[in-house]
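Researcher: I'd like a structural prediction for the single chain below. Treat it as a standalone chain; there are no partners to consider.
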Amino acid sequence: MKNIKKCFILILIVLTIGCNLTTKPLKQDYYTYINKDTIDSYVLKDDEYTISTFTKLQDKVNSDIDSVLTDLITTNKDINIIYNQIIDTNTRNTSGLSDLKYYIDLIDSSTTINEYIKNAMVVERDLYIPIFTSASIMRNLKDTTENMLYFQSIPFAFNSTSEYYTDDDYLSVKTLIKQYDIKLLKEYGYDKTRAREVSKNITDYYTKIANKSHPTSYYQNKENLYNPINKSELQAIYTNLDSTYFDNIPDNVKISLLDKENYSAINDSLTDENLPTLKEIVKLKILENYGEFLSENYAKILSDFSSEQLGIETKTDINDAAKNTVIALFQNEFDISYTNKYLTKESKEYILSMTNDIINYYEKSLTNLDWLSQDTKNKAITKLKNITINIGLNENDYYNLNYNLASNNTLIKNILKIKKVLEEHELERLKNNVPATTAVSQTTINAYYNPQDNSINFPSAVTNLVDLSKDYYENLGSIGMIIAHEITHAFDSNGAKFDEHGNLVEWWNKEDKENYQQLQKQIISYYDKYEVIAGNYINGSLTVDENIADLGAVNCISNLAKSKNASTTNLKAMYKSFANLWVEKSNDEYQKILLLVDTHSPAKYRVNATLSSTDIFYEVYNVSKTNPMYISKDKRVHIW
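Model: Treating it as a single chain, here is the predicted structure.
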């Protein structure tokens, strides 16, 4: 009997330990406590790197997109042509390099650096591939009544940025890029030895350019986007380019050059000594940008590259590939059709009403801040009251483009016609000073704040987060959190640099700015301590603006709910809905990539770290010093 009793006690201990391991108490890990059953139910397939509330909703949206696609294939000749040419793999597999061969042969024919420059200019112009410059049109950061042309750094292999070649944290991805460069070159016809040699030379070249270029993190500070320069000054940097290169820029258009060092380094590299490598770079750029429209082998190499980065297997479904391609190429047509079909008046009105509630509460909150002077408070409130709310498309998003595609053209020729029409549309927008269209597709579950016009923007698909069958407080924890998050971005470390009209101007006094910066440092340190995967921590500096927005949003909805006399039950429902919003299961490869490049904290910490700095959460759940989620009041962080 003694042995039986000991065995029984041991079993109880094991069961108790097991219970603690699988079901963490609410005050130890709120995110897991609320979401454990959902997380356990999520099973990542071989071709999935993450499952979340947002991917589940996106699946529903994708089903709606299938319906839109069916309509457009029937009614839109151009979409019908491209879709059917993509799924015609027999023609693609037997067409070789198609119309691209001319451009590759043109580059190969360059025997001097001057010939190369002349031929590369043709490739850049005809294929819309950035070789010497890359530009986009946005509003002038310091005068939002006019457009400005922003010249950006030239992307490296597979559209990577300088840190992939200079930062050891990106070493695994840099290695992967080299491997897939080799695969593309072998598919093109090089033997393994030559492909490896070319890939090494290209990597060495890019590393030299990258060491003289700004990393992506440099542009987290939006002030670094503004570096006005005139056309003659731009020409003076590119001394090796033909003087006609910049002729298509209208004389009255203002220019900002983001990375002078990047352009100078490329200009200096235009030598006969580098000619063999420069030719191979252009060749690879052509294959990287257009391989998806060539044979199935080329397309698979490109999709495998993306999959391997994410630690998943490539899912090969030609119909899905065709759908994704036509959505990307004809975004405007899909956005209009999806919005007209699925954006409901009820959901739109619900978001508008809740947004007004949040803005009204935010005004009271700003008034009561003790670290901000009255003058800056008044300016902040003016900015808040001038925020524009956009749900779905705005008037600049409705336009018709005529592509004039032909089914007897090659797929590549039709793709180039589409790119030409889109390029001409952008140039017309630049010349006629037309504001930018909506930055995010209407079929994306997302939202964003645009500091350049002081607006919060909700694509049509985000209304799927509104559940009219749930009460106000449950929706406040989900769509309300997102609304408050975007409003807080108007006052994050970048948003706070723009006035109520979206102009980049200083409207803070010195003392207020110093107070803000001190609070911001506290937030950076607070998030830096969170270890996500063994040895991999949140980068508090990278994620600071999103963390400011999360903290401000949860503080806002908590106090808004209290101001409406929400019961403890209501508040618990709101926090539960907030935790449900961010439920996610991801593989480690994806998490590690996000820790390097994503400006958001991982989902679990968007919940737990935020709630641990929210006073009302402590009141609702009686969180005390003995609980792991407890943070002493003087160590809790927030700005708004």
